[in-house]
Amino acid sequence: MRWFGVKEYGTSAGVPGTKYRVLGRRAPGAGVLVVQEGTGWVLGPDGTREAMSAKSVVMWDAGEWVEYGSDDGLKAEEYWAAQEPEEAALTRLAAVFGDQG
Predict the structure, then answer these.
(1) Which of 9, 19, 42, 62 could pair covalently with 68 via S-S, beta carbons 3.0-4.6 A apart?
(2) Which residues contact 55 (CB under 8 A, 6 or more apart)?
(3) pLDDT at 11 over 60
(4) Do the beta carbons of residue 16 and residue 71 sit within 8 Å?
(5) Which DSSP string do the residues of 3-23 spell out, in sequence order?
(6) What gap in Å lies between CA 93 and CA 77, rounded to an integer?
(7) 8-97 falls under which CATH superfamily?
């Protein structure tokens, strides 16, 4: 059995019928994605998209690349054993959206 205390938690919900993508990042610690509704994809270790659908669970180890999305809507929850450092999160967001400071 494998378990961890949750330090970071989040929900992801794309509007049904629209494309949705979670910004890629390195897993801050062990993590689990629970797909509750819809279908989507998760980026595999070799960079290819692997299909996933409702009632699926995806697990990552610390340091693995985390990126997933959907072409037609997805509702999911993420649970992480560690929090992403604030500086790393701000840098990642700035790379996509520009410096908002």
Answers:
(1) 42
(2) 35, 36
(3) yes
(4) no
(5) ----SEEEEEEPPTTS-EEPP
(6) 20
(7) Jelly Rolls (2.60.120.10)
Task: Spell out the domain ranges in the chain.
Answer: 8-97
**What is the pairing mode between strands 65-66 and 56-60?**
unpaired
**Tokens 């059995």 identify what position?**
1
What backbone phi and psi angles, to 5 degrees, belong to 86?
-55, -40
Can you tell me the distance from the alpha carbon of 100 to that of 73, in angstroms, rounded to the nearest whole number?
A: 28
> Mean pLDDT, to the nearest integer, of 86-92?
81
Question: Using CA atoms, how far apart are residues 5 and 71, in angstroms rounded to an integer?
Answer: 32
* pLDDT band per the 50, 70, 90 thresholds, residue 84: confident
